[in-house]
Design goal:
single chain, alpha+beta, Aminopeptidase, four-stranded antiparallel sheet, 28% helix, globular, binds coenzyme A
Length: 160
């Protein structure tokens, strides 16, 4: 297994993994990813098994303390000097789940964000995954302003 950052050629594979992991109303589209890959390909962490992408994390860097829905669509809001590494999505394709792969990706994002001098990581998640992110040290800050996909999301923050 190998973790690497992304290039534009990964667009199709990334879009397929996302579609396998999220319902249509929540999944980022090929067009969303294309915009992100143009601006911040180095903030994609792809987990490969023999060249096949089996999971990934992506998210912009920002000085804003909370994730807001505009960030998912507008890659220009990325600020490489920002304090917070956001995590827009954590994906592992179904047949590779419950083997610690998402945790492997999360540990790598956290160590890279620390090395880059960030203040911490922020993400939004549904209630069923709060306990999962707490295992990495994230703290639940309550219901998010996000209305992404019509679901209820919680703001989670890991401060270094
Ligand atoms: C969430 C997800 C990334 C976990 O990937 P993974 O590689 O299986 O993660 P790990 O092996 O590190 O950890 C698995 C843990 O996730 C948690 N988990 C995953 N899905 C869960 C669910 N539906 N309900 C409750 N807990 C869940 C459990 O704590 C599980 O631990 P367990 O096996 O001891 O019960 C993967 O299930 C996925 O892609 N889901 C769909 C997309 C999604 O919801 N992403 C997160 C929101 S951003």
């Amino acid at each position: 297994m190998n973790i690497r950052t992304a290039v534009m050629e990964d667009l199709e594979s990334i879009t397929k993994v996302e579609a396998a992991c999220f319902p249509k109303e929540e999944a980022a589209t090929s067009s969303d990813f294309e915009k992100r890959l143009r601006v911040y390909p180095e903030y994609f962490w792809l987990l490969e098994d023999g060249g096949k992408i089996i999971g990934f994390i992506n998210g912009m860097v920002t000085d804003e303390p909370f994730i807001r829905d505009e960030m998912f669509k507008d890659a220009s809001l990325h600020n490489k000097n920002g304090m917070w590494q956001t995590i827009f999505g954590v994906n592992t394709i179904p047949e590779y789940r419950r083997k610690g792969y998402a945790a492997m990706l999360m540990e790598k994002v956290i160590s890279d964000a620390k090395a880059q001098g960030r203040k911490g990581c922020v993400l939004t998640c549904k209630d069923k995954l709060i306990h999962y992110y707490e295992k990495f040290g994230y703290v639940n800050e309550g219901i998010s302003s996000s209305a992404h996909g019509g679901a209820v999301w919680y703001d989670m923050r890991l401060t270094f």
